[in-house]
Amino acid sequence: MAELADETTGQALTRARAAIELHARRVPDFPSPGIAFKDLTPVLADPEGLAAIVTALTHGCREVDLVAGIDARGFLLGGAVARELGVGVLAVRKGGKLPPPVTSVSYTLEYGTASLEIPADGIDLTGLRVLLVDDVLATGGTAVAAAELLERAGAEVIGVAVIMELGDLDGRGTIARGLGPAVPVHAVAVD
After folding, report:
1. CA angle 71-117-190, nearest 5°?
2. What are the tens digits of pLDDT across the range 99-122?
3. Cα separation of 49 and 12, whole Å?
4. Of 110, 185, 112, 109, residue with least CA distance to 147
5. What range does the domain containing 158 cover?
């Protein structure tokens, strides 16, 4: 069964990478001069591209109890990936978006600080194996903060899955240093 699943997700990886090449919009000098932004919105708007990406994000996933999607595009992906895996989804929100009580973590960005939150009531995360999902892995700080938040609530983050990894920014290294090298990072494509 696992071999069949890996074959299916492996085929989806090929289709997802082709959809990214075909549909991703390249925007020069955004968000600042010298940056070449790759907009994945057109890829997700394409039904075939979305389907391939969602399946590809599950590649190598085993024994997942819950998917956590990081605010905001991770919400779109997280729900679809959870459906694909037959598990529930949890939105990891930016600070100030949830009613109290919340469990919160603050972290440093290259341009300041931010916070992430999850509900402190109503969801028992103790012992749950969680797959963390987002659209892009850049420096890795947000993924590490989200994982720390989930672990504070009693969950175990068993992997990080993203559509696009910005390889020059060492997000994978940040995750390995912050969560340990045993936490796998799966990127559908690397830019």
Report:
1. 35
2. 999 999 999 877 788 999 999 999
3. 9
4. 185
5. 1-190
β-pairing, 88-94 vs 66-70, is parallel
Q: Compute the mean pLDDT over every residue in the chain, rounded to the nearest whole number.
A: 93
CA atoms within 13 A on the CB side of 6: 5
The domain that holds 105 is classified in CATH as 3.40.50.2020
**In this structure, is the dihedral angle defined by the CA atoms of residues 137, 72, 148 and 16, taken in order, positive or negative?**
negative
What Rg do the C-alpha atoms of the chain give, in angstroms? Answer: 16
**Which pTM was predicted?**
0.93
Q: Do 165 and 190 contact (CB within 8 A), yes or no?
A: yes
Q: Is 110 a catalytic residue?
A: yes
Residue 73 bears catalytic tag: yes
Q: How many domains does the chain have?
A: 1
Which of the following is catalytic: 3, 25, 110, 151? 110
Distance from chain centroid for Cα 36 = 21
Q: Please tell me which residue in 73, 93, 117, 165 is annotated as part of the active site.
A: 73
* Residue 76 identity (one-letter amino acid): L
Cβ neighbours, 10 Å, residue 144: 23
Answer for the pair 58, 123: CB distance below 8 angstroms, yes or no: no
**Omega prior to 91 cis, within 30 of 0:** no
